[in-house]
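Morning F.,

Quick status update on the modeling queue. The single chain you submitted on Monday has been processed. Sequence for confirmation:
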Amino acid sequence: MKKFTLCLKISLVSAFCMFLCAFSDPETLEQYTGYLQKTFVDHYDNAQESSQVKRYELNVTNTGFCRYKRYYNNGKTEYFAFKLAKFKDMDYYGTTVSGKLYIHTKSDDVIVQTYKDRGGDVDSMATQIIIPVKNMEAEDLNLIRNNLERIVKLPPAEIPKTEVKSED
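Structure tokens below.
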């Protein structure tokens, strides 16, 4: 009888845990990308490039892409894009006041396009993207890394399949 009671308790506890898990709200790609977009916009340091860059666009889409476009004063435009699921590692060089965030990908996964350059329009691939940032604390860097790692671990079915298209 004691074995039956023990098995019944284990079964009830297991069923209760499954019931609670069924109603939990797992985080989604949109939550991760929303956090990354807000963080990159809040911490972007335009002062590091203000003498050369007229304006910039930095977007993390809810389809799992990071797109960074810089418009230079001389008319040149640089465009960088990569799929967040290709994230490998990141480094930060600087202080809490100002620095550069290096986001590395698994392979040549960063699309680099240059327009109106002296050498002509160039399309190439890279293994990292560099974003100038300011007021970056260790906790912010850890949260960025955690969100990127969670995106990498998402099942492929949760990441929409889209193509990267240049906006020119």
